[in-house]
Amino acid sequence: MSFDVMKSLRTGLIGSVFLAASSFATLAQETLKIGGLGPLSGGGTSWGLAAQRGMDLAISDLNAAGGITAGGKTYKLELVFYDDLYSAQGGKAAAERLVHQDKIKYIVGPVGSPPALAAISVTNPAKVIALTNGYAPGVLKNDAPDPYNFRLYNTNLEFGPPIIKWIRENLKDVKKIALLAPNDAVGQAVAKPLAEDYKKEGFEVILDFFERGTKEFTPLILRMMAQKVDAFEFDGNSPGDAGLMLKQIRQAGFRGKVFQIGGPAVDEIIEIAGPASEGFMTYDFVDWDMPKAKALREAYQAKYGKGIISPFMPAFYHGVYLMAEAIKRADSIETDKVRTAMEKIDGFDIGIYGPVKWIGKETYGVNRQLMMQYFFSEVKGGKIVKIKKFTP
Amino acid sequence: MLDFLSRLEILLNPTVLGQVIVNGISLSAIYILVALGFTLLFGIMRVVNFAHGEFAMLGAFAFYHLTKDLNWPWMIALPAGVIGVAAASLVLEWLVFRWFYQRMFESMIGLLGLNMMLIYGGVLLWDTHERNIPAASQEVLMLGDIIIPIDRLIVVVIALAALTAFYLFIRHTRAGLAMRAAAQDVETAETQGVDTRHIYKVAFFVAILLAALAGSLWGQIYAVSPHLGERPLMMAFIVVILGGMGSIPGAALGGALLGFTESIVGTAFGAAASAFLSFGVVIVLLVFRPWGILGTPEN
């Protein structure tokens, strides 16, 4: 027997011993897979990466605290995250992979409405609990007779009317608003109800659309300025688009108010617009001054560097905790029991948002819309200053 | 919804019209810079460089790091970043590009792969969020009712200077003459003593230099991310198809047409109308004059 063969046998033997040892370890604690969905390629990659990282941090924290216990067993959580391509087709394919191939019963995501609407068409019939994002009302008002999906955080239908009322009462010079939105199903689903909310409060609204991928917004901005608008509103635009629009609005000489009652990503907007972001006012829902939120930010930066933190990171972190809480309360991993326990969650607080609760019966027909505190903030001296807090 | 006439009326407002023109010039200048390098590579080496936009992205990131992390003044950071990217890209020329010279169809697939590698290499290296390159100036120039951001004016001046330098290089240097000869007929150029391997390298360097410069200026006006190159690449395609694949004056004409169409039609009728018109013209051109406005038909 040659020396090489002996060496291979010895390596194999040592490997087998380690394998056996690790098998004993896994016997003691079972694994519960949690699925994640979000865009990991294309223009929405930053959102998907943030979602994935938020889930990864939450699972690490929960496992470090001993995992979750249900039905007398302790489970170590494991993340399985797939790219939904930020499309309906991608969302459906990724959800089918999680549900049918990986046999996963708990999913957080997708991030956007097109993949979320497609994913729930797979998860609901399979009785898989999905905590999705996606602002489209259809995510909750879906056709499933007995749905298992919930929405992970506030949409403009929840936070829009109170903030608009605040604007009417406090920013008296604003009467005519230019509302700019991407020209697709998601853009229209967000912008049209928001325009109606503004109109109900007595504002004149000029709603106009642009094609996704547009970088040069000056023509659109000039057209709005020629119609003597008092303010610009970015609704649910991505931080990339909102940052560019803000920069170009200021370069075009507009000195009025600029708002965003939509995607809460003010850090990214400040990074893109630079000094042009001064005075920008936006919806926001993460209070980074809260101790747990501060610790989460530090953990994120230690693991992923000091780059900008997308709001999807804490949202998906919170989503995993919400799922774990429902499983613990159900004391079971059967999704029927976990769904019932999830519906009963009220006042749950992990120290990032304050207490959260489910609402939505009036708007969507089901109490599956998570409601948490939110803010209307303004950029002052390059920093985000909260000017009004709204509590659920 | 505004009707057609009232939209035209908005366009004819002197304030709006002035800005539309300034905007048209700056857009045209950047589109021409991207498209020139793209058409140069095709004209001389018959390479369809699907990775062209990613060299613009690399130029933008070099400019970003030199200005933001090393605090270099933009007047030094811009040329240093652009030359650095073009020089470093010669490694890719040796590793990848040279295998595809005079192999148009293979180059499309191969360089599409390189395009994806550079985008997702960028995602791994820089993450995906968009970044801001500090503006050269925050000031605006007021000419009556017309407001011109100094930042954009600087971009226009730099782009026009680069285009002039490129024109002088192509028309009045021996390397430029050799490039034009190789573009017309590579075999005849070789029989006349032109060292095509050397000329290919020079052309590649110049093409990437222009792309990196366009990317840096693009990044300064807009924002920098690993996905920055996607739109410039699309624009380069439209411009060279309009002007004629491989035609340098065609790239200039195509860039100007596209830049002004986007600015004028976009302002009056929106981005959808502008995209509809631009792509509509490209389709009509491909049907009736596939070699473009100033291109020459293939034999």
Please give the structural blueprint.
The complex is a heterodimer of chains A (392) and B (299).
Chain A (H helix, E strand, L loop, with lengths): L2 H26 L1 E9 L6 H20 L3 E3 L2 E11 L4 H14 L4 E3 L4 H11 L5 E4 L16 E3 L4 H15 L5 E7 L2 H16 L3 E7 L7 H9 L4 E3 L5 H13 L5 E4 L5 H8 L7 E4 L6 H14 L7 H19 L4 H9 L2 E3 L7 E4 L1 H4 L4 E3 L2 E7 L2 E8 L2
Parallel strand pairs in A: 1-3, 1-4, 4-5, 5-6, 7-8, 7-9, 9-10, 10-11
Antiparallel strand pairs in A: 2-3, 11-15, 12-13, 13-14, 15-16
Chain B lengths: L3 H9 L1 H32 L6 H18 L4 H22 L8 H23 L13 E4 L2 E4 H23 L1 H11 L1 H6 L4 H26 L8 H14 L4 H22 L1 H18 L11
Description:
The complex is a heterodimer of chains A (392) and B (299). The longest helix of chain A has 26 residues. Chain A folds into two domains: 195 residues, 3-Layer(aba) Sandwich (Rossmann fold); 143 residues, Response regulator (Rossmann fold, 3-Layer(aba) Sandwich). Chain A has a seven-stranded mixed β-sheet. The N terminus of chain A is likely disordered. With 392 residues, chain A is an alpha/beta fold. Chain A is globular and about 65 Å long. Chain A contains 13 helices and 16 strands. Chain B has 299 residues and is mainly alpha-helical. Chain B has a domain of 202 residues. Chain B is built from twelve helices and two strands; from the N terminus they run αααααββααααααα. In chain B, strands 1-2 form a two-stranded antiparallel sheet. In chain B, helix 2 packs parallel to helix 6, helix 3 crosses helix 9 and helix 7 crosses helix 9. The N and C termini of chain B lie far apart (50 Å). The relative contact order of chain B is 0.19. The model of chain B has no long low-confidence stretch (mean pLDDT 88). The interface between A and B is large, with 42 and 42 residues.
